[in-house]
Amino acid sequence: MKNEKKIQNARALRAGGYSVLITAIVLAALIFLNLLVAALPASVTRLDATSSGLFTLDKQSEQILGGVSEEITLYHICQSGKENSMITELLGRYTAANGKITVRTVDPVVSPSFVAKYTDEALADNSVIVESGKRFKVVPYTDMVYTDYSGMTQEDYYNYYYYGVQPKGTQVFAGENALTSAIDFVTVPSVPKLYILNGHGEAALSTAMTSYIRDENIEYETVSLLTGAANGPDTFDEGLSGVSVKVPEDASCILLNTPTSDLSDAELTALLDYLKAGGTLVVTADYKTPDLPNVVRLANALGLEIPGSLVIETAQGYYTQRTYWLLPRAQSHGITDPLLSAQKYVLFANAHAMRAAESAPEGVTVTPLFLTSSDAVAKKETSFQLASYEEGDLRGQFVTAAAVTVGEGKAVWFSSPYLTDSGADQMTSGGNSGAFLNALGWTCEKPSSVTVRTIAMTVEPLVVAEGEANLWMVLLAILVPVAALGAGLFVWARRRRR
Asked: What is the pTM (predicted TM-score) of this model?
């Protein structure tokens, strides 16, 4: 009897030992699996179920991140417990895309002097500082999450102005655009410098356009070609011999944005010398350009002729709303190919007539970027009464934009002042800004472009058709419970038979 009890106890002990061993093995396997899953990239472990692809990196981001070959640190500035899940998730996607990108969270309360090393401004929680061995860039939270009021109606303006009713606006998530732009900025070998000419009544760039230029990581500054000083601090010169006219030495590109008064002879010479030495130039102009002789001479030196003023379209599909709001056809080129693939129009309103010269100056090559129909009309003079054909006007096909190479130099000439206009850009869903920014990228020889989409954060309700709703109700409320109950009865009956 005692032996039998000993045997039973031994068996129970062995069974208990096996249970402990199996439990330990299972726990070890679970811990290992948990560590393995934690080591996997966020793109594998966290699936993006949002309809707008909120946490899926854009192809352009993937391309830029794929080219990163140096260590980059993303400092997530945030107090403990105030982390924004969207920013945190997005940062995880960046580290998953390239192992050379790491994220460090910095609590400004614990390390109050950290942010001061990068900026004098106070940063809101969930701002990010992107740093490489070359340079750094601060990305405020307000650049990643903000409210867009561009869709305000007249009624919204009225209610806000008279009653102080705050318009709703659209919550926008632009985190990917801001962070990808910052990574591009800290990794490019050098940052292009754009100088915007002034002193000739040039049109000012809109806030949106300057924002796009910054996102493209192109530094910009306004400048006059009239530089220098008098012959000396204590001398007097009645003439202007002490004034030099030259392009800044660090210029990557010069922008002449729709001048309303003419260039001086010295400024024209300085620009041409700059181009021949390998410089780059982007020009936008309007139908009054023929009244500016030196601007016309600049075009002629680039192999372009300006035979008339306002261009009018007579062919259907080549204009919108007004016959002088042109929608010319894009020709294949590095500047226009992204627009062609995206099937975007570019609006050329108030454009002047332009053609490639039959005999271009030596070393100059002209490539038309946009062409009107062969039935277009150009007013002969800049002063006219009717926006239609009159005796003496020109007929035929005209170039509305051209890319020019001058030896090692480059230039792009747009015959319309509306390339940089926000209203025209909205009408073309970004076509105008795309053409303008692509031109800057081509002239500055910038290898990458950052135009990652922003995402509206408005949550749309799930809409299900009546038939589908009934089907899901039957499936989830009846069939699934009945199937579970049947499976339970089957297992119960099977065990009773034993």
From this structure: 0.66
